[in-house]
Design goal:
Elements: H1 6-37, E1 45-52, E2 54-76, E3 82-87, E4 94-95, E5 100-104, H2 107-142, H3 148-180, E6 183-185, E7 190-192, E8 202-203, E9 212-227, H4 231-237, E10 243-246, E11 249-256, E12 266-273, E13 285-302, E14 307-309, E15 312-319, E16 322-327, E17 329-334, E18 337-342, E19 349-353, E20 363-366
Parallel strand pairs: 1-20
Antiparallel strand pairs: 1-19, 2-9, 2-13, 3-5, 3-8, 4-7, 5-6, 7-9, 9-12, 10-11, 10-13, 11-12, 13-18, 14-15, 15-16, 17-18
Length: 368
């Protein structure tokens, strides 16, 4: 038997390595060939919702955030001090102008009035006596029965009595006025807030804390501000009778401020609302819309159809079961509608939902 030498073993080993490399190469080439023969996946069908491009008349509005304010508000304070005897309403009640609200203990003021009236009666009696003496001395001085000095003294006494009586009448009137302050009535028709002082407590005249606050809420005002760059539109299209909307409530513009606020670059406006249904409440924030013009035959699409890309705004237009990415020129978005200046025609169909999964080569399935 032939023996293998060291050189023969080396040759055999080299041949084995060559065969192994060839086998690996064949496997790799086979895999690549199989990969090339694998079919490409089909394009995914994207479900979308759509809407039609329409033409209609669209009111052009200015929108802003407004704050509801009472037409008038009154802080009720006591003009007379004393014990609060009675509260004639409940917190949150509607009250009418002239309706009784509070009663303060009137007895000290009644006593003061009676004293003033008694002083007035006494001094008026003295005045009548002084005037009677002056009348007698008028005749006596003409006949030189009394001296002029004595006559002057009688006249001065009558004038002094007259002044004292006038002061007494003023004191009595002031006492009567103070007594009237014991009954506090509503100066406006409105709705009461929370009570600050309850019956049985002592109140001070002209105290800084009001007894209650009354707000007039029928009608109410809504204050809002618009940017100064819309002043030209305000001057040309808006009057103090322009209609203003706050949700479902309708009112009219009643005030345009006479200056722009330099801190914010805005101008303040106010609208008055009848508010008979009380849908607007003082302190509430509402979205205000004020019509300034109307665009006839505007091309309109839902605002949610408009997308923003690197080259500007665009929409996906439906073409059979495919879509076309089309750039558009937008005039303005008002509420849920967008007015388009260029890029769309009436009757075309645009995608309103599902745009994130779309590409210009996507196939679509309209749902809904």
């Amino acid at each position: 038997m032939k023996k293998w030498g060291g050189r023969d073993f080396y040759v055999l080993r080299s041949a084995f390595c060559v065969l192994r490399s060839s086998a690996l190469a064949i496997l790799v080439l086979g895999s690549l060939a199989c990969a090339e023969k694998t079919e490409k996946p089909r394009d995914e069908t994207v479900p979308v919702t759509v809407a039609q491009v329409v033409k209609k008349n669209v009111p052009l509005e200015i929108e802003a955030i407004g704050n509801v304010q009472p037409l008038s508000t009154v802080e009720i304070r006591a003009l007379a001090g004393g014990q609060l005897m009675r509260v004639w309403f409940k917190e949150g009640d509607d009250v009418a102008r002239g309706q009784m609200l509070f009663t303060i203990d009137p007895r000290p003021y009644q006593a003061t009035l009676q004293q003033a009236q008694a002083n007035l009666a006494r001094d008026e009696a003295l005045l009548r006596n002084a005037e009677s003496q002056q009348a007698r001395y008028d005749d006596l001085v003409k006949k030189d029965y009394v001296t002029k000095e004595e006559y002057s003294r009688i006249v001065s006494a009558a004038e002094a009595a007259r002044a004292v009586a006038a002061a007494d009448r003023a004191a009595a009137e002031n006492a009567r006025l103070q007594l009237s302050y014991c009954e506090i009535r509503s100066p406006i028709t409105g709705r009461t807030g929370g009570l600050k002082v309850y019956a049985g407590n002592l109140v001070k005249a002209n105290d800084t804390t009001p007894l209650v606050v009354i707000n007039q809420i029928e009608p109410v005002r809504v204050q809002f501000s618009i940017p100064q760059d819309q002043l030209a539109t305000i001057h040309t299209s808006v009057t103090t009778n322009t209609e203003v909307h706050a949700g479902q409530a309708r009112g009219t513009l009643s005030f345009i401020d006479n200056a722009v606020d330099p801190r914010t670059g805005t101008i303040a406006l106010k609208a008055t609302f009848p508010n008979r249904d009380r849908s607007l409440w003082p302190g509430q924030f509402v979205t205000v819309a004020m019509k300034v013009a109307e665009r006839d035959d505007a091309i309109v699409v839902p605002a949610r159809a408009v997308q923003v890309g690197q080259k500007g705004q665009y929409v996906y237009v439906v073409n059979g079961n495919a879509v076309e990415m089309r750039p558009i020129a937008v005039f303005r978005t008002i509420g849920q509608d967008t007015i388009v200046d260029k890029g769309l025609a009436v009757g075309e169909v645009v995608v309103t939902d599902g745009q994130l999964r779309l590409t210009p080569k996507s196939k679509i399935e309209i749902k809904g």
